[in-house]
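Supplementary Note 2. Why include the ligand at all?

Several targets in our set were suspected to adopt different conformations when bound, so apo predictions alone were not considered sufficient. For every target with a known small-molecule partner we therefore ran a joint prediction. The input for 4'-phosphopantetheine is given below.
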Amino acid sequence: MLKGLCVCPGSFDPVTIGHVDLIERAVKLFDGVIVVVLNNPSKRGCFSVEERLDMLAKVCLHLPTVEVDSFDGFLTEYIQKRETRIVIRGIRTIADIDYEFQMAQINRQMVPEMETLFLMVTAQYAHVSSSAVREICGFGGDISAFVPAIIVEQIHERLWPHGRMQ
Ligand code: PNS
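The joint prediction is reproduced in token form.
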């Protein structure tokens, strides 16, 4: 167990079982975990920040050392505000590495004491993504293998309000 807080940042649009797996693993490593919803300028959001926070709070209910938060600004500003320096990100595919490498370097150039730790995805979640959830649900498909059971209906009602899941 490492002392102190770490931050798990993301868009969480919406949170998936892959995210929850990463958060649960971070909980085992650090005294406390802050899961923060940030804006990714290259993605157009689907769920509001309030909806994302509500879903995150529901899926992290069993994790008492997790705090859920949101921030409008740079990740570097947020970690300084919270007086921590450790950021955890998950890696699913080789394609993730390019993007994550660049982001970690930019962040560390802005705040040299910041460290990004990467956890390899648990193999069974390697194909799970928020965009897949949005797409499957948008066409009325079953998302129950991709998101925690407690938020399936909420996502379904929002993205496929007039239909029934197939
Ligand atoms: O879940 P995502 O979309 O991969 O998360 C990316 C996120 C939100 C962590 C990243 O876009 C981010 O840190 N956004 C806040 C703005 C910022 O600090 N950008 C990095 C410097 S260019």
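The first strand starts at residue 2 and ends at 10. The mean pLDDT is 95. Comparable summaries for the other entries are listed in the accompanying table.
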